[in-house]
Design a protein that fits this description.
- The protein is an alpha/beta fold.
- The chain folds into five domains: about 140 residues, Mannitol-specific EII, Chain A; about 90 residues, HPr-like (Histidine-containing Protein, Chain: A, 2-Layer Sandwich); about 120 residues, 3-Layer(bba) Sandwich (Glucose Oxidase, domain 1); about 100 residues, Enzyme I, Chain A, domain 2, CATH 1.10.274.10; about 300 residues, Phosphoenolpyruvate-binding domains (TIM Barrel), CATH 3.20.20.
- The protein contains 31 helices and 26 strands.
């Protein structure tokens, strides 16, 4: 790694009046050296509002927000040596402030050195007292070896059997996929190792994996040795690659949530204190504030018999594991499988060998069992908090959550979270996932936290519970007096305190209006989407499995607008058989009960990869062999799927749709092969259609309409191809907005082409689930909108409150807009006019 720190960027014997002052001084050093634009100071300050950058033992690492990396000219580090210290977080004082401006991941090795320093008090003291800047430069650039415990003292050599791969996870390696790696690795006796650059990890150890700091597109080396080394290596590689599609799907869903406009539901007219954070759970509430002031956890060191202490720790770990297993089941049953996985990952943290070994060393040194466990867990949590990716750094909260459970089983009087007995808005520095999962929505009007982020496990659980929530509201939040009256707009992430009586009444009217809207939407979700002047739109649901049909219909779906078949091929070691596929499609028909059912054939490639298919690596997979291109090249995959579909068609109605069609010849080939299979099985004819996801398909819609029976527009892919923006790109993804007028014009061209041959047009991309997007699509003339089940009631309500001619006028205005902001402004204008 190149040296990141030079003597010119070290300020010895500095003084800072506050944390803010220290950050300003550090940013001035970075700016003067040409590393950052002046505006990066705001990013450094913004990070402090989102997460605590105090690493531990007097070391703080202020760094900016990921979205502001464009303000970094080149990667650099500046150090303030503060012998007197400055208060940084929760009474802790920082004596070394290491400010980081990193364009990518060049600084990860530096962070690993800093985590070693927190376990080496003697070395830290030397650096704080140094009078030669070169001493700090050498220590942080790696020229000086540390004597304290370290994460990795040296990089171990790879084992004899090895493979290389690129980590195709948009958010890098974090807890959920890492837990799956661990589960696979533990099935084998072989010793396994994952190496990322100069850092190696044991894939049977969750925290070890997280400390790799493996970001998106990281180059990994997997190696193994032992009796089943070959099988273990193959299985681990398959698991890693099989999770790629799921990670991309989760990332896309998160982006879609972020890209949706977050309207401000209400603002006071009279003066009030406003605490602005980030929305973690939409909704609106009014009520009394209850402030949870977390006491610093102090564990007394009570030495005892080492053997007895070991047994006590084993018993506490076992009890905690059972507790988390029960919580996993309970949360999955109440909130969903994905939410239950949060606590399954927590359970895996108990198996972290580095954590257990550290606690054992402290026990052998004569310390008490609870103190030893607490110290070991805190050090591991500090290492996680130091990771540059906020998604990974947030796992420190998870580890502390688990550690406190163990302490309770060791007999420590660990404070339990506040249990509300009367309705209130909860204020806290942070809430752990355990605290959040146990919140009672009946009395929890909402919550606000000082720190946290919208992608944390706490925020995920808040959204699932339906609790209005705002996170990253800043330290001043804790200055609110317990018992204050407040208004919480979780949708925009704002808390208002000290609201006048007149404004409180206005807030109650807003709350009543929103409640009536939600009740009407829920009560009327089974009603058809009929405009005020009688125009009917079909509403479909996007699903993957037969068991999801019931929920879709309960939410008001008229049928299934898109069944994705990829799930049949993912997270397994070989392709599903024809019989297995037939059984799934047959069950889907049964669940649909004769309603419309559109099944998309295998859509693999691009952001979805299946390792056992051995597809060649492509430098630009989104423009490569994917969708129908792959199916036509792999009849061993395509023909069994078509056979299964036509066999199922004998049991009930279904439509077949081919993805990623870009040329007329591709459509002709797919239709011809389908007809051959149908004739061989003597199956009924079914409608055959294509996904319109490419500009060529939209431009040639009139020609395609002469060949196929229907279109379904996939706005997610169509957007990225029309705008030439990779929707997985970390910097450009926010530009991939389907409301862009250029995308809307391609949709109109598709509808116009279909109408020349009186063909049906649906939309199954993310735009269909956005009430504004749905309104514009209806105005453009589409026949059907298919979306996530949870989006159906709001979309139906919007359409039922509109006239077709008004929707058509809205669509015409949107087509004439210059950009996305102008299109969204049309919606705001309509809302104000309606009010």
């Amino acid at each position: 790694m190149p040296s990141l720190l030079t003597a010119e960027l070290v300020r010895l014997n500095a003084r800072a009046a506050s944390k803010q002052d220290a950050i300003v001084q550090a940013s001035e050093l970075l700016a003067a050296a040409g590393f950052i634009e002046p505006g990066y100071l705001e990013s450094l300050q913004g990070r402090e509002q989102v997460s605590n950058t105090y690493l531990g033992n007097g070391v703080a690492i202020p760094h900016g927000l990921q979205e502001d990396r464009h303000l970094i000219r080149r990667t650099g580090v500046a150090v303030l040596q503060l012998p007197e210290g400055v208060e940084w977080h929760d009474g802790e004082r920082a004596h070394l402030v290491v400010a980081i401006a990193a364009q990518s991941d060049e600084h990860i090795t530096l962070l690993q050195r800093l985590t070693r320093l927190i376990g080496d008090p003697q070395q830290l003291r030397t650096l704080v007292e140094a009078r030669d800047p070169q001493i700090l430069v050498d220590a942080l650039n790696g020229a000086v070896a540390h004597t304290g415990p370290s994460v990795v003292d040296s990089t171990p050599a790879d084992f004899e059997q090895r493979v290389e791969l690129v980590l195709d996870y948009p958010h890098g390696l974090h807890a959920r996929p890492a837990s799956a790696w661990v589960a696979t690795a533990k099935r084998y006796q072989a010793a396994l190792r994952v190496r990322h650059g100069d850092t190696a990890a044991d894939p049977k150890n969750l925290v070890s994996l997280l400390q790799l700091g493996a970001s998106a597109n990281a180059q990994l080396v997997l190696s193994a040795q032992g009796v089943d080394a070959g099988d273990a290596l193959v299985a681990l590689k398959r698991t890693i690659e099989a999770l790629s599609a799921e990670e991309h799907e989760r990332a896309a869903a998160a982006r879609a949530r972020r890209q949706k406009a977050q309207p401000v539901l209400w603002t006071p007219l009279d003066p009030a204190d406003v605490f602005e954070g980030v929305s973690a759970g939409p909704g609106f509430s009014i009520g009394t504030v209850r402030v949870l002031r977390a006491a610093q956890l102090e564990i007394e060191d009570r030495p005892g018999n080492t053997v007895d202490a070991t047994h006590q720790l084993d018993a506490a770990l076992h009890s905690t594991a059972n507790e988390l297993e029960a919580l996993t089941r309970d949360t999955a049953a109440r909130l969903g499988a994905a939410e239950g996985e949060i606590f399954a990952a927590h359970r895996e943290l108990l198996n972290d060998s580095a954590l257990l070994e550290h606690a054992a060393r402290l026990l052998l040194d004569g310390h008490g069992v609870a103190w030893a466990w607490h110290q070991a867990a805190e050090q591991q949590a500090a290492r996680l908090a130091a990771l540059p990716d906020p998604l990974l750094a947030a796992r420190a909260t998870d580890l502390r959550d688990v550690a406190r459970r163990v302490l309770k089983h060791l007999g420590e009087n660990v404070a339990t979270p506040m249990r509300l007995d009367t309705p209130a808005i909860l204020i806290a520095e942070d809430l752990t996932p355990s605290d959040t999962a146990m919140l009672d929505p009946a009395v929890t009007l909402g919550f606000c936290t000082v720190s946290g982020g919208p992608t944390s496990h706490t925020a995920i659980l808040a959204r699932t519970l339906g609790v209005p929530a705002a996170v990253a509201c800043g330290a001043s939040l804790l200055k609110i007096a317990d018992g204050s009256e407040a208004v919480l707009d979780g949708t925009s992430g704002r808390l208002y305190v000290g609201v006048s009586a007149q404004d409180r009444e206005r807030a109650r009217q807003t709350q009543l209006h929103l409640l009536e809207q939600a009740e009407r939407a829920a009560a009327n979700r089974a009603l058809p989407a009929v405009t005020l002047d009688g125009h009917v739109l079909e509403i479909g649901a996007n699903i993957t499995r037969p068991e999801q049909v019931r929920d879709a219909l309960a939410n008001g779906a008229d049928g299934v607008g898109l069944m994705r078949t990829e799930f049949l091929f993912l997270e397994r070691h070989d392709a599903p058989s024809e019989d297995e596929q037939y059984d799934t499609y047959r069950r889907m028909i049964e669940a649909s009960g004769g309603r419309q059912l559109i099944i998309r054939t295998l859509d693999i490639g691009g952001d979805k990869q299946v390792p056992y298919l051995n597809l060649p690596h492509e430098s630009n997979p989104f423009l490569g062999v994917r969708g129908v291109r792959l199916c036509l090249r792999r009849p061993d995959l395509f023909v069994p799927q078509l056979r299964a579909l036509y066999r199922a068609a004998k049991e009930g109605p279904l439509w077949i749709m081919f993805p990623m069609v870009s040329t007329l010849d591709e459509a002709r080939q797919a239709i011809a092969l389908a007809e051959t299979v149908r004739a061989e099985l003597d199956a009924p004819k079914v409608p055959l259609g294509i996904m319109v996801e490419t500009p060529s398909a939209a431009a040639f819609a009139d020609h395609f309409a002469a060949l196929v029976d229907f279109f379904s527009i996939g706005t997610n892919d169509l957007t990225q191809y029309v705008l030439a923006v990779d929707r997985e790109h970390p910097e450009l993804a926010r530009m991939a907005e389907s409301l862009h007028p250029a995308v809307l014009r391609m949709i109109k061209q598709t509808v116009d082409g279909a109408r020349k041959h009186r063909k049906w047009v649906g939309v199954c991309g993310g735009l269909a689930g956005d009430p504004l997007g749905a309104s514009i699509l209806a105005g453009l003339g589409v026949d059907e909108l298919s979306m996530s089940s949870r989006d159906i009631p709001a979309v139906k309500t919007r359409l039922r409150g509109s006239r077709l001619d008004a929707l058509q006028a809205l669509a015409r205005r949107a087509l004439d807009c210059e950009d996305v902001d102008a299109v969204r402004a049309l919606d705001n204008a309509e809302i104000k006019a309606a009010a």
